[in-house]
Amino acid sequence: MTLKIHIDEGVAPYEQVRAQIAEQARSGALPVGYRLPTVRGLAESLGLAANTVAKAYRALEADGVIETRGRNGTFVAAAGSAAEREAASAAQAYAERVVRLGLTEEQASVAVREALRAVYGG
Q: By the 8 A CB rule, do 52 and 11 touch?
């Protein structure tokens, strides 16, 4: 696992750790079942505070990218299905909300496309 933190980049270090681990897990560079370094170990190797790495690990666990198995360590989870379930749940909540707001299906779709463009930079 290779991570590079750029303090002067304007992105919080914990977010850089979270995003890089998530991307490596999604791409397969970190395979399912790969054991991640301990919070303390990764913090030391990156020159970060342990709380910074712990925050990234908590976010990754909440997203279903990693799982902690107590004293056995932290591992890359089979995140695809968990991520897809969470996305489906968020989409359902969004659909219900826009109906309550009185938007048409086309208006709701435009809002989603614009939000995705903003996030993915397209």
A: no
